[in-house]
Amino acid sequence: MDFKGSDTVPGPRTEDQLPHTAQAAAKIVIVGGFGVGKTTMVGSVSEIRPLTTEETMTQAGIGVDDNYGSATKTATTVAMDFGRIKITDQLVLYLFGTPGQERFWFLWNGLFEGALGAVVLVDTRRLEVSFDVMGRLEERGVPFVVAVNSFPDAPRYPLEDLRTALDLSKDVPIMECDVRRRASSRDVLMTLMRFLHSLAMTRSLT
Ligand SMILES: Nc1nc2c(ncn2[C@@H]2O[C@H](COP(=O)(O)OP(=O)(O)O)[C@@H](O)[C@H]2O)c(=O)[nH]1
Ligand SMILES: [Mg+2]
Predict the structure, then answer these.
(1) 40 lines ligand 1 (CB under 6 A)
(2) What is the pLDDT of residues 91-109, one digit of tens each?
(3) Does ligand 1 have an atom closer than 6 angstroms to the CB of 98?
(4) What is the pLDDT of residues 14-45, one digit of tens each?
(5) 43 CA distance to ligand 1 middle (Å)
(6) Architecture category of domain 22-53+75-201 in CATH
(7) Is the CB of residue 44 below 6 angstroms from any atom belonging to ligand 1?
(8) Cα 98 to chain centroid, rounded
(9) Ligand 1 centre distance from Cα of residue 108 (Å)
């Protein structure tokens, strides 16, 4: 076979290469209802060009996807978003943004496999869409933090009221964020890493 043409294939771009200091990589999933900001979060925080599988909403989504608060949204993620961020010189996180719509739940088993933790994004206008997502994470034993993506026209509630409304136990971190801002998205990931660390410490003591 003739492989002569293969030298024209571009190599990996520098920014796509794993930093040479990296010693560990962890898989983190970002979940939440439709239009809550998953794709935006992966996009704002990723150091590599995020992979996104956006597809124009299909007939199957009409009347099924809850468009509240995202009436202008014409694309939805059917498979997932993928990104990467270096949290420390040694630790790299791989981010998987996954759809929260019921008809894509069959994808979840594989997507949660090996996940160290999760970020559940919520929109205060549609809290109920997050219930199922959190239930499924609990079932699978994936620890998570809750990040309230503050849309300007969404009602604001004290975080402790949201904790009660979401029926979260007191140890689950809950915070506000603006996923369009890189620093804010990064803060959410740092909170998750601290939470995972504290869980690991507690487990090793018992
Ligand atoms: N105002 C505002 N808009 C946002 C915010 N996060 C996402 N959006 C917009 O909301 C829409 C849905 O976000 P997207 O990331 O696609 O949601 P996904 O379905 O969870 O992936 C997009 O048009 C975003 O630009 C936010 O924090 N504030
Ligand atoms: Mg999306």
Answers:
(1) yes
(2) 999 999 987 656 666 666 6
(3) no
(4) 666 777 777 788 999 999 888 899 999 999 99
(5) 11
(6) 3-Layer(aba) Sandwich (3.40)
(7) no
(8) 7
(9) 21
